[in-house]
Amino acid sequence: MSRTAILVGCAELPEGDGDEDVVLPALRELGFSVSWAPWDSGAGFAAADAVILRATWDYAARRAEFLDWCESVPALYNPAAVVRWNTDKAYLAELLDAGLAVVPTELVEPGEQARFPSSDFVVKPSVGAGSRGAARFAAGADASSHVAGLHAEGHTALIQPYQSSVDTEGELALVYLGGIYSHAFAKGAMLGSTMDASGLYLTEQLAKAEPPSDAVALAEDVLDAASALLGILRAELLYARVDLVRGADGKPLLLELELTEPSLGFRQADPAAALRFASAVRQQLA
């Protein structure tokens, strides 16, 4: 029986950035009719068996409209409630409160006064994608003007101490499909990178990686805690990407948990990863 799957992009990237090219034939092998469409295109999302968020990287500037659209799609993956929670990085504070090893995070609402770390630090909007609006500052710097600029745009500012390991090790991204570990890839430092031609995200240097045991353990804990906060089973997440960095003590820290539209690094994964993704889609429908 043929089922319909729509991979969702945006007007600037209506068919993503190419990372999913290997996924389409895998989905077709498992009985899906597959197409791409921008989320705001008016395509037949309501009638599709699976609507899969992949490259909706313009949502940050239109989050309310995007969330309304998500709520209107019956078979959205990941679901709208997950998207609402995950598209505001305030979730990091919730995971920190739950006892997870998270990069220290301070949220500064519009009208509040910011306090800056004594070490190098990063300021970014709590709602954003592709590292847009993120800036790094040296120890002792006054980033009030950057915070004010974010506030003027209606954003809550998020302040984190800069993790120097990013300069030497970069980040480690662990990918889970249907709640089960699939593969991992390494990401080079993004701050200071150039913007992609679409203007939606900063370019990344990616490479295949084998995660060490302590990173896997933290990623597992993060998924369990996030699922508990959301009131769902891990298996209900079609995809998840856990981004980790090393802290000053050498232990892994959560930088971001991507449950909405992350690149999943299929170009850095083994060939079977595309089939694992397609199988996870089937699992969601079952």
UniProtKB/TrEMBL annotation:
Domain ATP-grasp as annotated: residue spans: 92-286
Keyword Zinc: no
Annotated transmembrane regions: none
Keyword Nucleotide-binding: yes
GO molecular function terms attached to this record: ATP binding; metal ion binding
Domain of life: Bacteria
Keywords: ATP-binding, Nucleotide-binding
InterPro entries in the record: ATP-grasp (IPR011761), DcsG_Biosynth_Enzyme (IPR053191)
Protein name: ATP-grasp domain-containing protein
Species this protein is from: Amycolatopsis australiensis
Lineage start: Bacteria, Bacillati, Actinomycetota, Actinomycetes, Pseudonocardiales
